[in-house]
Design brief:
The chain has 317 residues and is an alpha+beta fold. 28% of the residues lie in helices and 32% in strands. The chain has 9 helices and 17 strands. The strands form 4 sheets. A 6-stranded mixed beta sheet has the order 6-7-8-3-9-10, with helices on both faces. Strands 13-17-14-15-16 form a 5-stranded antiparallel beta sheet. It has a 4-stranded antiparallel beta sheet with strand order 2-1-4-5, covered by helices on one side. Helix 2 (91-101) packs across helix 3 (106-119) and helix 3 packs across helix 4. The longest helix has 18 residues, at 165-182. The mean pLDDT is 89.
């Protein structure tokens, strides 16, 4: 295993940032640390990187006890959300920096920089200054710089959080492809559920300094360990006292099989290809339901409907 975190704890005064965290991150995988702001995910990432000291516990990276190792001896690449490049250096010199301070030869440095700029599709911008790049291009430069030293582990702290939605989506796709090419163990912090579900091989859900659940995107989405995980990984509503996803509810216009719940449509909202209904049930629950336009055709406010969970739909444990 690439990273072994054992019993790691961290407090800031009375605030518990991490409480006795145990975590194994597999070699070569792309692992997301997912959770709300203040949940502890960035603190954990910084402890793995050596940028923060844990109050207790240990960190082992590729079999090497790294708990007390300084940052520069952990062979870790790190990319922050607000990446601060050397403004007066070209893109190529920014990428070369880590190699130069490690005393690599000029020929080796130039070859590695050329290889990386080609990998991140920035070869044509090698001689530009960072200020002449777009936000997405600067983040690709940051990743190239982190990869230049051939790290054992690549750590990304909300790398796309400062970019607009369209660019974030493009970079997510690009990061997945890049990871599959370079095959370096990668850990990234995000509070964006879609980002984690789309990109990661494994997701670690962290909340209030504790791990709520670890698993593949499919496992967490289909078999959440608790209400928090279910609610954090996508929209939920409540039907019959249990949490369920709005798209996992069937709607009928007439009484159906036993187990259906009667209600009245109180709101119909069209959002792109979706139609979102609010149904007030006989149990006085306001149930949110998501349908396609085809399945919602003809449904209007005031209609009587009968609703039930889709067969096999996950609900709160």
């Amino acid at each position: 295993m690439s990273i072994e975190v054992s019993g790691v704890s961290k407090r800031y005064g009375d605030f518990v940032a991490l409480a006795d965290i145990d975590l194994t991150i597999p070699t070569g995988g792309l692992t997301a640390l997912l959770g709300p702001s203040g949940g502890g995910k960035t603190t954990l990432l910084r402890i793995i990187a050596g940028l923060e000291d844990a109050d207790g516990g240990s960190v082992v990276i590729e079999g090497v006890e790294a708990t007390d190792l300084p940052v520069q001896k952990r062979n870790v690449g790190f990319v922050f959300q607000h990446y601060a490049p050397f403004k007066h250096l070209s893109v190529a010199r920014n990428v070369a920096f880590g190699l130069e301070v490690r005393g690599r030869s000029r020929a080796e440095t130039q070859a590695r920089v050329a290889e990386l700029l080609d990998l991140v599709h920035l070869s044509q911008f090698a001689h530009r200054l960072p200020s002449q790049l777009s936000g997405g291009q600067r983040q690709r430069m940051a990743l190239a710089r982190a990869l230049a030293i051939q790290p054992t582990v690549l750590l990304l702290d909300e790398p796309f959080g400062a970019l607009d939605a369209k660019v974030r989506k493009e970079l997510r796709d690009w990061l997945r492809r890049l990871h599959d090419e370079v095959n370096v163990t990668t850990v990234f912090v995000t509070h964006d559920q879609e980002e984690a579900l789309e990109v990661a091989d494994e997701i670690v859900v962290i909340n209030e300094g504790r791990i709520e659940q670890i698993g593949s995107p499919e496992e967490l989405y289909d078999k959440p360990a608790n209400d928090f995980v279910m609610g954090f990984l996508g929209p939920v509503t409540r039907l019959g006292g249990s949490l369920i996803r709005p798209h996992d509810i069937d709607v009928a216009r007439a009484p159906g099989t036993p187990g259906t719940t009667a209600g009245v449509v109180t709101r119909v909202l069209r959002v792109g290809f979706e139609v979102r209904l609010t149904v007030r049930t006989d149990q006085d629950e306001a149930v949110l339901i998501t349908l396609t336009r085809t399945h919602a055709r003809g449904i209007a406010v005031g209609d009587d409907v009968w609703i039930a969970p889709t067969e096999g739909a996950p609900s709160s444990p």
